[in-house]
Amino acid sequence: MDTSIENVESYIATFPKETQKLLEQIRQTIRSVAPTATEKIGYGIPTFVLNGNLVHYAGYKNHIGFYPGAAGIEKFQEELSVYKGAKGSVQFPLDQPLPLKLVSEITKFRVVQNEQKLTTKGKKNS
Questions:
Q1: Distance CA 120, CA 115 (A)
Q2: 80 found inside a domain
Q3: CA quadruple 24, 98, 36, 71: dihedral positive or negative?
Q4: Which of 18, 38, 39, 122 is the most interior residue, by most CB within 10 Å?
C-alpha cells in the first residue's frame, strides 16, 4: 500500500495508459450511479464514500479489483461467478471489457444498503 498517493488522479496516473482508461471507466460508472458520493484514497486505493465506505477499486498488473464488500458480492454471486474473487472482492481481467453495467448495479445496491444502515442508526439514536 503506497501511502504517498494523496488523491485518485495521482493513483490512476501510476498505471500504464490502457489500465488508466479502465480505471477511469470504472470510476465514471460508479460516479454516475452515486453522484453525491465523495472520493478518497482509503486503504491505499480509490474509495467512494456515501454514508460510510461504498465501494473501492484498484489497478493491478493483470486485473482491476472491485471491492463492494461481502454483501455486494453475495447479492450478485451468479453474475460474478465468471470472475475470480473472494468474500468481498472480484477481479476483472485487463484483457476483457469491464462489466460496467454490473458494476453499476452492484454500486446501486450498495447505495441502498448504506442508506438503510443510516436510517437504522437514526432510529436507534432517537
A1: 9
A2: yes
A3: negative
A4: 39
Q: Could you tell me the three cell numbers for 6? A: 494523496
Structural domain of 19:
8-119
pLDDT (tens digit per residue) in 50-79: 999 999 999 999 999 999 999 999 999 999
Domain count of the fold of the chain: 1
Contact 37, 50 (CB under 8 A): yes
* Domain harbouring 17, CATH code: 3.90.1150.200
pTM of the model: 0.90
Cα–Cα distance, 100 to 103 (Å, whole number): 5
- Helical residues (DSSP H) of 1-126, grouped into ranges: 8-13, 17-33, 69-75, 77-80, 100-125
Domain membership flag for residue 70: yes
